[in-house]
From TrEMBL:
Name of the protein in its database record: EAL domain-containing protein
Location of this fragment in the whole protein: 304 to 592 of 694
Occurrences of domain EAL (ranges): 24-275
Organism annotation: Sphingomonas alba
Coiled-coil intervals, chain numbering: none
Amino acid sequence: AAKSAGKGCFRFFAPDMHEAARQRQLLESDLRVALEKGELWLAYQPCVDASSEDVIGFEALIRWNHPERGSVSPVEFIPLAEEIGLINEIGEWVLRTACAEATKWPKHITVAVNLSPIQFKSHALPTIVRMVLNDTGLDPKQLELEITEGVFLNNDDHVHDMIDGLKAIGVKLALDDFGTGYSSLSYLQRVPFDKIKIDRSFVSGAHDPESRNAALIRAMVGLASDLKMQTTAEGVETREELALIRSLGCSLVQGYLFGKPMPPEEAQELAAKGSAALPAQLPWREPRI
Ligand code: C2E
Ligand code: MG
Ligand code: MG
Ligand code: MG
């Protein structure tokens, strides 16, 4: 009966799950060759000093221009790369490309690279970082590595050895997406982070008096400052959010308000200019009725 009902009936027997699995498999095989085909590239988002509005660095964010699907989000393909064992290769490419790009910027401007927890499983991570810095000639002080709480889920010595190895090179360490994981805070005792990045989920709408996010941000900034770490507020989109972030003592901001992730040429221009200052805000005037 299904056959006589024609093509449309096929869906009844092949649930969406199958289609999703098939799509995933296609994406998987495409990802395996994306690097060789030059479909991956890095966008750079400025990180700005909250008070001076000077650009202090950029975060490298990976992009995939798929020939048929267009732009595929890293939220989709990074987990895939992790699952299929491609993340080490992609991660090293990101590191190398970002470091090479940053050598074109003024010396005080940093580049931040996101690392997957999987990259910590190998013993080679510090060696790879050292090698990439050597090959590109980037000053270790100019490189910041962003890691997430996920790295500490298995609180083992190996992870801490890798972190010590990275610190010994002289690179900076940032804790990304702080407050969103399920990890305990105990790793903060052991890991000398230079910076904590407060996730966008706390920043969005934090200026709303109804929101409890301001209290959480204040606590995170206090904790970080006691531990001699800087704080970056992620995902600042409005002047209201910026004003609040400043008042809470957060020293750095990143977000669409100051700049979206941009192609390398634009980042280089902005790095040379050095300022992301917003146009002065017109004074508020009483509306005439
Ligand atoms: P992340 O490291 O927390 O990066 C911040 C994300 O927030 C980026 O999304 C960025 O484009 C976005 N964002 C920044 N400012 C704003 C804003 O004002 N509003 C909104 N709505 N979004 C903002 P993106 O580029 O899609 O990256 C998503 C995640 O993918 C990253 O989160 C990171 O976890 C991962 N990722 C990106 N590139 C890499 C990479 O090279 N390696 C690894 N392992 N992960 C990466
Ligand atoms: Mg990040
Ligand atoms: Mg982040
Ligand atoms: Mg985030």
